[in-house]
Amino acid sequence: MLSKNQKKLIAAMAQKKQRDSQLLFLAEGPKTVTDLLEAGLQPTLIAHTENWSLPSSWSSKSLERIPVTQKELDSASHLKTPQQVLALFKQPQYSFNNNAIYNELTLVLDGIQDPGNMGTIIRLADWFGISHMVCSMDTVDVYNPKVVQATMGAIARIQVHYTQLPAFFRQYREKCDNPIYGTYLEGENIYENSLKSPSLIVMGNEGNGIRAENAPFITHKITIPTFPAGTPTSESLNVGVAAAIVCAEFRRSENYSR
Amino acid sequence: MLSKNQKKLIAAMAQKKQRDSQLLFLAEGPKTVTDLLEAGLQPTLIAHTENWSLPSSWSSKSLERIPVTQKELDSASHLKTPQQVLALFKQPQYSFNNNAIYNELTLVLDGIQDPGNMGTIIRLADWFGISHMVCSMDTVDVYNPKVVQATMGAIARIQVHYTQLPAFFRQYREKCDNPIYGTYLEGENIYENSLKSPSLIVMGNEGNGIRAENAPFITHKITIPTFPAGTPTSESLNVGVAAAIVCAEFRRSENYSR
After folding, report:
1. Nearest to B249 by CA among B193, B203, B200, B210
2. Tell me, what's the ipTM?
3. Which of A152, A226, A232 is nearest residue B234 as measured by Cβ atoms?
4. What's the pTM?
5. Which of A43, A113, A245, B253 is buried most, with the most CB atoms less than 10 Å from its CB?
Protein backbone atom coordinates (compact mmCIF):
# COMPACT_ATOMS: atom_id res chain seq x y z
CA MET A 1 0.00 0.00 0.00
CA LEU A 2 1.20 3.51 -0.81
CA SER A 3 1.53 5.94 2.07
CA LYS A 4 -0.07 9.36 1.93
CA ASN A 5 3.34 10.96 1.39
CA GLN A 6 4.22 8.59 -1.42
CA LYS A 7 0.94 9.39 -3.17
CA LYS A 8 1.66 13.08 -2.76
CA LEU A 9 5.13 12.67 -4.20
CA ILE A 10 3.80 10.75 -7.23
CA ALA A 11 1.16 13.43 -7.84
CA ALA A 12 3.84 16.14 -7.54
CA MET A 13 5.72 14.68 -10.52
CA ALA A 14 3.31 16.53 -12.84
CA GLN A 15 5.16 19.74 -11.91
CA LYS A 16 8.62 20.55 -13.22
CA LYS A 17 9.44 22.56 -10.09
CA GLN A 18 8.74 19.54 -7.91
CA ARG A 19 10.67 17.17 -10.19
CA ASP A 20 13.65 19.48 -10.14
CA SER A 21 13.66 19.98 -6.38
CA GLN A 22 13.32 16.24 -5.71
CA LEU A 23 15.56 15.26 -8.67
CA LEU A 24 13.06 12.53 -9.44
CA PHE A 25 10.78 11.59 -12.30
CA LEU A 26 7.83 9.28 -12.81
CA ALA A 27 7.74 6.34 -15.23
CA GLU A 28 4.71 4.15 -15.84
CA GLY A 29 3.94 0.83 -17.44
CA PRO A 30 5.98 -2.37 -17.74
CA LYS A 31 7.79 -1.37 -20.93
CA THR A 32 9.10 1.95 -19.67
CA VAL A 33 9.88 0.84 -16.11
CA THR A 34 11.68 -2.29 -17.30
CA ASP A 35 13.72 -0.38 -19.89
CA LEU A 36 14.80 2.15 -17.27
CA LEU A 37 15.74 -0.58 -14.79
CA GLU A 38 17.69 -2.43 -17.46
CA ALA A 39 19.51 0.77 -18.39
CA GLY A 40 20.68 0.95 -14.79
CA LEU A 41 18.64 3.91 -13.62
CA GLN A 42 18.04 4.02 -9.89
CA PRO A 43 14.42 3.68 -8.73
CA THR A 44 13.39 5.10 -5.37
CA LEU A 45 9.89 3.62 -5.40
CA ILE A 46 8.20 0.86 -7.41
CA ALA A 47 4.47 0.31 -6.95
CA HIS A 48 2.98 -2.59 -8.86
CA THR A 49 0.02 -4.92 -9.10
CA GLU A 50 0.47 -8.65 -8.79
CA ASN A 51 0.70 -9.17 -12.60
CA TRP A 52 4.05 -7.34 -12.73
CA SER A 53 7.38 -8.84 -11.81
CA LEU A 54 10.88 -7.43 -11.68
CA PRO A 55 13.04 -8.07 -14.78
CA SER A 56 15.26 -11.07 -14.15
CA SER A 57 18.47 -9.02 -14.26
CA TRP A 58 17.26 -7.27 -11.12
CA SER A 59 15.87 -10.19 -9.20
CA SER A 60 18.86 -10.54 -6.93
CA LYS A 61 19.04 -6.88 -6.01
CA SER A 62 17.27 -5.58 -2.99
CA LEU A 63 14.72 -3.18 -4.32
CA GLU A 64 11.86 -2.05 -2.20
CA ARG A 65 8.64 -2.78 -4.02
CA ILE A 66 5.17 -1.80 -2.93
CA PRO A 67 2.32 -4.14 -3.87
CA VAL A 68 -0.79 -2.21 -4.82
CA THR A 69 -4.29 -3.07 -6.02
CA GLN A 70 -5.44 -1.98 -9.47
CA LYS A 71 -7.63 0.58 -7.71
CA GLU A 72 -4.67 2.06 -5.87
CA LEU A 73 -2.63 2.14 -9.08
CA ASP A 74 -5.51 3.86 -10.90
CA SER A 75 -5.70 6.54 -8.27
CA ALA A 76 -1.94 7.21 -8.15
CA SER A 77 -1.33 7.03 -11.91
CA HIS A 78 -1.09 10.00 -14.28
CA LEU A 79 -2.35 7.87 -17.17
CA LYS A 80 -5.87 7.21 -18.44
CA THR A 81 -5.25 3.47 -18.52
CA PRO A 82 -2.60 2.66 -15.88
CA GLN A 83 -0.74 -0.58 -16.45
CA GLN A 84 0.73 -2.87 -13.79
CA VAL A 85 3.52 -0.63 -12.46
CA LEU A 86 4.68 2.89 -11.78
CA ALA A 87 8.05 3.94 -10.44
CA LEU A 88 9.95 7.00 -9.33
CA PHE A 89 13.52 7.19 -10.61
CA LYS A 90 16.39 9.47 -9.75
CA GLN A 91 17.07 11.90 -12.58
CA PRO A 92 20.41 10.80 -14.05
CA GLN A 93 22.95 13.63 -13.85
CA TYR A 94 24.77 13.73 -17.17
CA SER A 95 27.78 15.94 -17.55
CA PHE A 96 27.82 17.74 -20.85
CA ASN A 97 30.20 15.61 -22.92
CA ASN A 98 31.47 18.04 -25.52
CA ASN A 99 33.81 15.55 -27.14
CA ALA A 100 31.01 13.13 -27.83
CA ILE A 101 28.94 15.95 -29.29
CA TYR A 102 31.79 17.09 -31.58
CA ASN A 103 32.25 13.56 -32.88
CA GLU A 104 28.69 12.37 -33.40
CA LEU A 105 25.46 13.26 -35.13
CA THR A 106 23.54 15.30 -32.54
CA LEU A 107 19.99 16.66 -32.50
CA VAL A 108 19.40 20.22 -31.29
CA LEU A 109 15.85 21.30 -30.36
CA ASP A 110 14.95 24.98 -30.40
CA GLY A 111 11.79 25.39 -28.35
CA ILE A 112 9.85 22.16 -28.96
CA GLN A 113 6.69 22.51 -26.85
CA ASP A 114 4.57 19.41 -27.31
CA PRO A 115 5.37 16.48 -24.97
CA GLY A 116 4.26 13.97 -27.60
CA ASN A 117 6.62 15.46 -30.19
CA MET A 118 9.48 15.49 -27.67
CA GLY A 119 8.88 11.84 -26.78
CA THR A 120 8.69 10.87 -30.45
CA ILE A 121 11.98 12.63 -31.18
CA ILE A 122 13.77 10.90 -28.28
CA ARG A 123 12.42 7.55 -29.48
CA LEU A 124 13.63 8.09 -33.04
CA ALA A 125 16.99 9.44 -31.87
CA ASP A 126 17.43 6.13 -30.10
CA TRP A 127 16.48 4.23 -33.28
CA PHE A 128 19.01 6.14 -35.34
CA GLY A 129 21.90 5.89 -32.88
CA ILE A 130 21.85 9.51 -31.79
CA SER A 131 22.90 9.50 -28.15
CA HIS A 132 22.85 13.20 -27.26
CA MET A 133 20.25 15.89 -27.68
CA VAL A 134 20.83 19.56 -26.87
CA CYS A 135 17.75 21.66 -26.12
CA SER A 136 16.97 25.34 -25.61
CA MET A 137 15.99 26.16 -22.03
CA ASP A 138 12.33 26.55 -23.03
CA THR A 139 12.06 23.15 -24.72
CA VAL A 140 9.55 20.91 -22.91
CA ASP A 141 11.12 19.07 -19.95
CA VAL A 142 12.32 15.57 -20.75
CA TYR A 143 11.01 14.39 -17.35
CA ASN A 144 7.47 15.62 -18.00
CA PRO A 145 5.48 12.37 -17.44
CA LYS A 146 3.91 12.67 -20.91
CA VAL A 147 7.35 12.89 -22.51
CA VAL A 148 8.66 9.93 -20.48
CA GLN A 149 5.63 7.92 -21.61
CA ALA A 150 5.94 8.86 -25.28
CA THR A 151 9.61 7.81 -25.41
CA MET A 152 8.56 4.16 -24.90
CA GLY A 153 11.72 3.50 -22.88
CA ALA A 154 14.13 5.34 -25.17
CA ILE A 155 14.64 7.93 -22.45
CA ALA A 156 16.86 5.36 -20.74
CA ARG A 157 19.39 5.55 -23.56
CA ILE A 158 19.48 9.20 -24.66
CA GLN A 159 21.21 12.06 -22.85
CA VAL A 160 19.16 15.24 -23.09
CA HIS A 161 20.87 18.52 -22.17
CA TYR A 162 19.28 21.93 -21.66
CA THR A 163 21.37 25.00 -22.34
CA GLN A 164 21.49 28.48 -23.87
CA LEU A 165 21.66 27.60 -27.56
CA PRO A 166 23.50 30.66 -28.88
CA ALA A 167 26.39 30.08 -26.44
CA PHE A 168 26.39 26.38 -27.27
CA PHE A 169 26.52 27.07 -31.02
CA ARG A 170 29.29 29.67 -30.57
CA GLN A 171 31.46 27.18 -28.71
CA TYR A 172 30.69 24.42 -31.23
CA ARG A 173 31.81 26.67 -34.11
CA GLU A 174 35.01 27.51 -32.24
CA LYS A 175 35.88 23.94 -31.39
CA CYS A 176 35.05 22.15 -34.63
CA ASP A 177 34.30 22.64 -38.30
CA ASN A 178 31.28 20.37 -38.46
CA PRO A 179 28.22 21.55 -40.37
CA ILE A 180 25.17 22.81 -38.47
CA TYR A 181 22.08 21.81 -40.44
CA GLY A 182 18.81 23.60 -39.77
CA THR A 183 15.46 22.39 -41.09
CA TYR A 184 13.51 25.13 -42.86
CA LEU A 185 10.50 25.26 -45.12
CA GLU A 186 12.69 27.00 -47.68
CA GLY A 187 16.12 25.42 -47.70
CA GLU A 188 18.10 23.14 -49.96
CA ASN A 189 16.53 19.82 -50.87
CA ILE A 190 17.94 17.17 -48.49
CA TYR A 191 18.23 14.75 -51.39
CA GLU A 192 20.35 17.12 -53.45
CA ASN A 193 22.79 17.84 -50.63
CA SER A 194 25.45 15.67 -49.20
CA LEU A 195 24.56 15.26 -45.56
CA LYS A 196 27.60 14.71 -43.39
CA SER A 197 28.11 13.71 -39.81
CA PRO A 198 29.51 14.45 -37.26
CA SER A 199 27.24 17.46 -37.31
CA LEU A 200 24.24 19.07 -35.66
CA ILE A 201 20.65 18.88 -36.90
CA VAL A 202 18.58 21.77 -35.54
CA MET A 203 14.78 21.39 -35.35
CA GLY A 204 12.68 24.48 -34.59
CA ASN A 205 9.55 25.15 -32.58
CA GLU A 206 6.24 23.71 -33.85
CA GLY A 207 4.77 27.07 -34.85
CA ASN A 208 7.72 29.39 -35.30
CA GLY A 209 10.63 27.26 -36.42
CA ILE A 210 14.22 28.11 -35.55
CA ARG A 211 14.57 31.32 -33.54
CA ALA A 212 16.20 34.39 -35.08
CA GLU A 213 18.96 34.35 -32.44
CA ASN A 214 19.97 30.85 -33.51
CA ALA A 215 19.61 31.24 -37.27
CA PRO A 216 23.06 32.86 -37.83
CA PHE A 217 24.78 29.69 -36.59
CA ILE A 218 23.10 27.46 -39.18
CA THR A 219 25.62 26.60 -41.92
CA HIS A 220 23.18 24.60 -44.10
CA LYS A 221 19.46 25.28 -44.45
CA ILE A 222 17.77 22.06 -45.49
CA THR A 223 14.25 21.13 -46.55
CA ILE A 224 12.26 17.95 -47.12
CA PRO A 225 10.77 18.32 -50.62
CA THR A 226 7.06 17.80 -51.25
CA PHE A 227 5.84 15.50 -53.98
CA PRO A 228 5.08 16.23 -56.71
CA ALA A 229 6.94 19.54 -56.54
CA GLY A 230 4.77 22.62 -56.77
CA THR A 231 1.33 21.18 -55.97
CA PRO A 232 -0.81 22.57 -53.14
CA THR A 233 -0.06 20.60 -50.01
CA SER A 234 0.26 20.86 -46.25
CA GLU A 235 2.27 23.90 -45.21
CA SER A 236 4.58 21.84 -43.09
CA LEU A 237 5.22 18.45 -41.57
CA ASN A 238 4.87 17.70 -37.87
CA VAL A 239 8.26 18.34 -36.24
CA GLY A 240 8.61 14.72 -35.07
CA VAL A 241 7.94 13.49 -38.59
CA ALA A 242 10.38 15.99 -40.09
CA ALA A 243 13.09 14.99 -37.57
CA ALA A 244 12.49 11.34 -38.45
CA ILE A 245 12.83 11.86 -42.20
CA VAL A 246 15.98 13.96 -41.81
CA CYS A 247 17.68 11.54 -39.36
CA ALA A 248 16.76 8.58 -41.57
CA GLU A 249 18.23 10.35 -44.59
CA PHE A 250 21.50 11.08 -42.74
CA ARG A 251 21.87 7.42 -41.85
CA ARG A 252 20.81 6.23 -45.31
CA SER A 253 23.14 8.51 -47.21
CA GLU A 254 26.08 7.55 -44.96
CA ASN A 255 25.44 3.84 -45.07
CA TYR A 256 23.49 2.85 -48.14
CA SER A 257 24.17 5.28 -50.94
CA ARG A 258 25.90 3.71 -53.87
CA MET B 1 -25.08 33.86 -30.92
CA LEU B 2 -25.36 30.10 -31.14
CA SER B 3 -28.79 28.57 -30.52
CA LYS B 4 -29.23 25.77 -28.02
CA ASN B 5 -29.70 23.29 -30.87
CA GLN B 6 -26.55 24.48 -32.63
CA LYS B 7 -24.56 24.05 -29.40
CA LYS B 8 -25.98 20.56 -29.00
CA LEU B 9 -25.05 19.66 -32.56
CA ILE B 10 -21.47 20.91 -32.09
CA ALA B 11 -21.15 18.91 -28.85
CA ALA B 12 -22.52 15.80 -30.61
CA MET B 13 -19.61 15.85 -33.07
CA ALA B 14 -17.49 14.07 -30.44
CA GLN B 15 -19.48 10.91 -31.22
CA LYS B 16 -18.99 8.91 -34.40
CA LYS B 17 -22.60 7.75 -34.34
CA GLN B 18 -23.81 11.34 -34.36
CA ARG B 19 -21.33 12.39 -37.07
CA ASP B 20 -22.44 9.50 -39.26
CA SER B 21 -26.15 10.12 -38.80
CA GLN B 22 -25.78 13.87 -39.49
CA LEU B 23 -23.08 13.35 -42.15
CA LEU B 24 -21.26 16.30 -40.61
CA PHE B 25 -17.93 16.90 -38.93
CA LEU B 26 -16.38 19.65 -36.82
CA ALA B 27 -13.32 21.68 -37.77
CA GLU B 28 -11.70 24.29 -35.55
CA GLY B 29 -9.21 27.10 -35.90
CA PRO B 30 -8.46 29.47 -38.79
CA LYS B 31 -5.94 27.16 -40.49
CA THR B 32 -8.19 24.12 -40.69
CA VAL B 33 -11.41 25.98 -41.45
CA THR B 34 -9.78 28.08 -44.17
CA ASP B 35 -8.12 25.05 -45.78
CA LEU B 36 -11.42 23.20 -45.88
CA LEU B 37 -13.25 26.20 -47.34
CA GLU B 38 -10.56 26.65 -49.96
CA ALA B 39 -10.75 22.98 -50.87
CA GLY B 40 -14.43 23.56 -51.64
CA LEU B 41 -15.98 21.66 -48.74
CA GLN B 42 -19.46 22.79 -47.82
CA PRO B 43 -19.92 24.33 -44.36
CA THR B 44 -23.31 24.23 -42.71
CA LEU B 45 -22.37 26.49 -39.79
CA ILE B 46 -19.48 28.87 -39.13
CA ALA B 47 -19.20 30.45 -35.69
CA HIS B 48 -16.41 32.96 -35.25
CA THR B 49 -15.13 35.79 -33.10
CA GLU B 50 -14.56 39.22 -34.57
CA ASN B 51 -10.83 38.54 -35.25
CA TRP B 52 -11.69 36.00 -37.93
CA SER B 53 -12.71 36.80 -41.45
CA LEU B 54 -13.73 34.65 -44.39
CA PRO B 55 -10.96 33.81 -46.88
CA SER B 56 -11.16 36.21 -49.82
CA SER B 57 -12.08 33.48 -52.31
CA TRP B 58 -15.32 33.06 -50.37
CA SER B 59 -16.20 36.65 -49.74
CA SER B 60 -18.77 36.89 -52.50
CA LYS B 61 -20.58 33.73 -51.55
CA SER B 62 -23.52 33.80 -49.25
CA LEU B 63 -22.42 31.85 -46.24
CA GLU B 64 -24.30 32.12 -43.03
CA ARG B 65 -21.87 33.10 -40.31
CA ILE B 66 -22.62 33.37 -36.62
CA PRO B 67 -20.68 35.98 -34.66
CA VAL B 68 -19.77 34.70 -31.20
CA THR B 69 -17.86 36.06 -28.22
CA GLN B 70 -14.66 34.35 -27.08
CA LYS B 71 -16.63 33.05 -24.11
CA GLU B 72 -19.24 31.44 -26.36
CA LEU B 73 -16.52 29.95 -28.55
CA ASP B 74 -14.76 28.57 -25.47
CA SER B 75 -17.92 26.89 -24.31
CA ALA B 76 -18.79 25.35 -27.70
CA SER B 77 -15.24 24.28 -28.64
CA HIS B 78 -13.78 20.78 -28.22
CA LEU B 79 -10.27 22.26 -27.87
CA LYS B 80 -8.34 23.37 -24.81
CA THR B 81 -7.43 26.66 -26.48
CA PRO B 82 -10.15 27.49 -29.01
CA GLN B 83 -9.09 29.86 -31.75
CA GLN B 84 -11.26 32.37 -33.59
CA VAL B 85 -13.52 29.98 -35.50
CA LEU B 86 -15.27 26.64 -35.55
CA ALA B 87 -17.34 25.21 -38.35
CA LEU B 88 -19.47 22.22 -39.21
CA PHE B 89 -18.86 20.78 -42.66
CA LYS B 90 -20.72 18.19 -44.68
CA GLN B 91 -18.75 14.96 -44.88
CA PRO B 92 -17.60 14.71 -48.50
CA GLN B 93 -18.90 11.52 -50.08
CA TYR B 94 -16.05 10.00 -52.06
CA SER B 95 -16.73 7.08 -54.30
CA PHE B 96 -14.05 4.44 -54.11
CA ASN B 97 -11.93 5.22 -57.16
CA ASN B 98 -10.28 1.90 -57.91
CA ASN B 99 -8.48 3.12 -60.98
CA ALA B 100 -6.76 5.88 -59.07
CA ILE B 101 -5.73 3.39 -56.41
CA TYR B 102 -4.30 0.94 -58.98
CA ASN B 103 -2.24 3.72 -60.56
CA GLU B 104 -0.87 5.57 -57.55
CA LEU B 105 1.09 5.08 -54.37
CA THR B 106 -1.59 4.44 -51.73
CA LEU B 107 -1.40 4.09 -47.95
CA VAL B 108 -3.36 1.30 -46.25
CA LEU B 109 -3.96 1.47 -42.49
CA ASP B 110 -4.70 -1.72 -40.58
CA GLY B 111 -6.26 -0.70 -37.27
CA ILE B 112 -4.55 2.59 -36.40
CA GLN B 113 -6.13 3.69 -33.11
CA ASP B 114 -4.57 6.95 -32.01
CA PRO B 115 -6.20 10.11 -33.45
CA GLY B 116 -2.87 11.97 -33.31
CA ASN B 117 -1.17 9.25 -35.35
CA MET B 118 -4.03 9.23 -37.86
CA GLY B 119 -3.84 13.00 -38.27
CA THR B 120 -0.07 12.89 -38.66
CA ILE B 121 -0.36 10.22 -41.36
CA ILE B 122 -2.98 12.20 -43.32
CA ARG B 123 -0.75 15.28 -43.11
CA LEU B 124 2.32 13.45 -44.41
CA ALA B 125 0.29 11.68 -47.12
CA ASP B 126 -0.61 15.16 -48.34
CA TRP B 127 3.07 16.22 -48.25
CA PHE B 128 4.13 13.22 -50.29
CA GLY B 129 1.39 13.43 -52.91
CA ILE B 130 -0.57 10.42 -51.74
CA SER B 131 -4.21 11.21 -52.42
CA HIS B 132 -5.99 8.06 -51.23
CA MET B 133 -5.85 6.12 -48.01
CA VAL B 134 -7.64 2.82 -47.45
CA CYS B 135 -8.40 1.87 -43.83
CA SER B 136 -9.70 -1.18 -41.99
CA MET B 137 -13.16 -0.68 -40.52
CA ASP B 138 -11.71 -0.37 -36.99
CA THR B 139 -9.20 2.35 -37.85
CA VAL B 140 -9.95 5.57 -35.97
CA ASP B 141 -12.57 7.72 -37.74
CA VAL B 142 -11.10 10.43 -39.96
CA TYR B 143 -13.83 12.81 -38.76
CA ASN B 144 -12.97 12.39 -35.08
CA PRO B 145 -12.37 16.05 -34.08
CA LYS B 146 -8.87 15.17 -32.79
CA VAL B 147 -7.96 13.65 -36.14
CA VAL B 148 -9.35 16.63 -38.06
CA GLN B 149 -7.28 18.93 -35.84
CA ALA B 150 -4.07 16.92 -36.20
CA THR B 151 -4.25 16.93 -40.00
CA MET B 152 -3.67 20.71 -40.00
CA GLY B 153 -5.92 21.11 -43.03
CA ALA B 154 -4.58 18.14 -45.00
CA ILE B 155 -7.92 16.39 -44.50
CA ALA B 156 -9.25 18.70 -47.21
CA ARG B 157 -7.02 17.08 -49.82
CA ILE B 158 -6.91 13.36 -48.96
CA GLN B 159 -9.65 10.80 -49.63
CA VAL B 160 -9.91 8.31 -46.77
CA HIS B 161 -11.88 5.11 -47.38
CA TYR B 162 -12.98 2.50 -44.84
CA THR B 163 -13.44 -1.05 -46.01
CA GLN B 164 -12.87 -4.74 -45.24
CA LEU B 165 -9.17 -5.04 -45.98
CA PRO B 166 -8.98 -8.72 -46.95
CA ALA B 167 -11.62 -8.19 -49.67
CA PHE B 168 -9.88 -5.02 -50.81
CA PHE B 169 -6.51 -6.78 -51.06
CA ARG B 170 -8.05 -9.73 -52.90
CA GLN B 171 -9.53 -7.47 -55.52
CA TYR B 172 -6.31 -5.45 -55.80
CA ARG B 173 -4.31 -8.64 -56.46
CA GLU B 174 -6.81 -9.69 -59.11
CA LYS B 175 -6.86 -6.37 -60.89
CA CYS B 176 -3.20 -5.44 -60.91
CA ASP B 177 0.29 -6.74 -60.36
CA ASN B 178 1.51 -3.93 -58.13
CA PRO B 179 3.54 -4.78 -55.04
CA ILE B 180 1.90 -4.63 -51.62
CA TYR B 181 4.54 -3.48 -49.13
CA GLY B 182 3.97 -4.13 -45.44
CA THR B 183 6.08 -2.55 -42.71
CA TYR B 184 7.39 -5.08 -40.22
CA LEU B 185 10.02 -5.11 -37.49
CA GLU B 186 11.65 -8.00 -39.30
CA GLY B 187 11.53 -7.43 -43.02
CA GLU B 188 13.93 -6.47 -45.76
CA ASN B 189 15.90 -3.27 -45.31
CA ILE B 190 14.06 -0.49 -47.21
CA TYR B 191 17.42 0.83 -48.42
CA GLU B 192 18.43 -2.48 -49.95
CA ASN B 193 15.16 -2.96 -51.81
CA SER B 194 13.91 -1.22 -54.86
CA LEU B 195 10.69 0.44 -53.82
CA LYS B 196 8.26 0.82 -56.69
CA SER B 197 5.02 2.65 -57.16
CA PRO B 198 2.17 2.34 -58.06
CA SER B 199 1.82 0.12 -55.03
CA LEU B 200 0.32 -0.13 -51.58
CA ILE B 201 2.12 0.60 -48.31
CA VAL B 202 0.42 -1.15 -45.40
CA MET B 203 0.97 0.21 -41.87
CA GLY B 204 -0.19 -1.89 -38.90
CA ASN B 205 -1.79 -1.14 -35.55
CA GLU B 206 0.31 0.66 -32.92
CA GLY B 207 0.67 -2.35 -30.65
CA ASN B 208 0.03 -5.37 -32.82
CA GLY B 209 1.17 -4.46 -36.31
CA ILE B 210 -0.46 -5.91 -39.42
CA ARG B 211 -3.25 -8.39 -38.65
CA ALA B 212 -2.81 -12.07 -39.45
CA GLU B 213 -5.76 -12.00 -41.87
CA ASN B 214 -4.02 -9.32 -43.94
CA ALA B 215 -0.48 -10.67 -43.80
CA PRO B 216 -0.91 -13.20 -46.65
CA PHE B 217 -1.56 -10.35 -49.11
CA ILE B 218 1.74 -8.61 -48.37
CA THR B 219 4.16 -9.24 -51.24
CA HIS B 220 7.14 -7.40 -49.68
CA LYS B 221 7.91 -7.20 -45.97
CA ILE B 222 9.98 -4.09 -45.38
CA THR B 223 11.82 -2.64 -42.37
CA ILE B 224 13.48 0.63 -41.44
CA PRO B 225 16.96 -0.33 -40.22
CA THR B 226 18.31 0.89 -36.88
CA PHE B 227 21.68 2.54 -36.62
CA PRO B 228 24.24 1.28 -35.94
CA ALA B 229 22.93 -2.19 -36.75
CA GLY B 230 22.70 -4.55 -33.80
CA THR B 231 22.88 -2.13 -30.86
CA PRO B 232 20.16 -2.05 -28.18
CA THR B 233 17.56 0.48 -29.20
CA SER B 234 13.85 1.23 -29.12
CA GLU B 235 11.77 -1.78 -30.06
CA SER B 236 9.89 0.15 -32.67
CA LEU B 237 9.19 3.55 -34.13
CA ASN B 238 5.91 5.39 -33.70
CA VAL B 239 3.64 4.42 -36.61
CA GLY B 240 3.39 8.01 -37.88
CA VAL B 241 7.17 8.29 -37.90
CA ALA B 242 7.55 4.94 -39.63
CA ALA B 243 4.98 5.91 -42.28
CA ALA B 244 6.84 9.17 -42.84
CA ILE B 245 10.22 7.53 -43.34
CA VAL B 246 8.81 4.90 -45.70
CA CYS B 247 6.82 7.41 -47.80
CA ALA B 248 9.83 9.74 -47.98
CA GLU B 249 12.02 6.86 -49.11
CA PHE B 250 9.55 5.90 -51.87
CA ARG B 251 9.56 9.44 -53.19
CA ARG B 252 13.34 9.81 -52.84
CA SER B 253 14.19 6.56 -54.56
CA GLU B 254 11.82 7.34 -57.44
CA ASN B 255 12.97 10.90 -57.91
CA TYR B 256 16.46 11.41 -56.60
CA SER B 257 18.41 8.19 -56.77
CA ARG B 258 21.31 8.34 -59.14
Report:
1. B193
2. 0.91
3. A152
4. 0.93
5. A245
